[in-house]
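REQUEST ID: PR-0412
SUBMITTED BY: lab tech R.K.
PRIORITY: routine
TASK: structure prediction, single protein chain
INPUT:
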Amino acid sequence: MARRAQILAVVLAFGLGAAACGHPAPDTAFVQAGPEARLEALNAVDVRVAGVAWALARSNADLCPVTRPRAGWTLQSAGQYGGALRPTAEARYGLEGDLPGVLAAPRGSPAAEAGLSPGDLILSVNGQPLSRGEGATESYEGLQANAATLDAAAARGPVTLRVRRAGVEREVTVRPVDACAYPTQVEVTGTRRSRADGRNIFISDGMVSVADDDDQLAFVLAHELAHAVLEHRTQPDVTGARGASNGAITLRRGLSLSAEADADRLGLFLLARAGFDPYLAVEFLTRFEAADRGARYAQFNSGGIYESAPARRRTLQPVLADIAARKAANRALIP
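STATUS: complete
OUTPUT:
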C-alpha cells in the first residue's frame, strides 16, 4: 500500500491490481498546502465517498455475489501517516500508533447508529485489546491486523467496542449488517480514474472532483460495484454469503467485450436502488468529457471496450427509460 499522503481511505480490506476505468490525465485536486489544509481536504473527500459507497453496498446486498456483516466505517491510524501529516492527524483525531480511529461513519451505518464518529479511537473489541504498535514507524501492517480482528468479530455478530474520544473512554455496541463485501478506497494520485479488483473499489481524488454532486459520484462508484456484482474480477479470499437476488440478474457474468457497457447499465440500477437519481447521475459523463479530452474517444482495456462518453450517454438512454418504467409499475430494479 502507498503512503497516507497518497492513499486516503483505509477500510477493512486491502489489495491492488485491476484494469482502470477512466483516463490518467493529470489533475490539481491535491494541492501542496499546509498540513492542516491538506488533512482537511483529504478527510472531506473520504467522508463524501464513504457515504455514497455505503449506501450502494448496503442497498444492493441482495445482488452482490459476496456479502458479509459490515459496520460501514472507514478507519485510519497514526501509523499510516507520514511527514507533517502525522502530528496533525494525531492532534485532530486523538490517534495513537496502530489503533484504529474512525475517519467516517456514514449516516445510517451500524457505526453511526452506535454513536461512533470521527475522533473515536477503538481500543478493544469484545474485551480483546487491539495493538498499539511499536513506535513512530510509518506502516500499514498494524492497522491491517487490527482491522482484521474487527472484521472477524463483526462476522460473528454484534461487537462491544471500548472507544476513547477526547480522553474519555466508553463502551458502545455495534450491530453489523449484511452489505456487499467490497469496501471503497480513495487514492490520491492526481489522476481521473476508478477501478475494481474483486476485493476493493478504488476511486482517485481527481475522479471525485469531477463529480458535481453525490448522484454523479454514485455513477462512478456504482459502475465499479457493478463490475464486482457481475464477477468481472473475483478473488478467492473474498468470502461470504451470496445475495438472495443475485441469481435473478440476466446480464453476462465474467469478462467479455461488453463488460464495461454492462457495468454502466447495471450501475444505473444499483444507484437507483440506493436512492440516487439515475438521470442526474448520467450527467457525470458530461462533466467527465469536459474535464478529460480522452473521454471523447473509445478506449480498450483488459476489461473490454470502453466507449466514448457521448456513446455511453446514448446507450444509457433506454436504460433510464427502463428504470423509470419499472419504478412506475412497482417492478424489481434487477436487469
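NOTES: DSSP finds ten helices and 14 strands in the chain.
REVIEWED BY: pending
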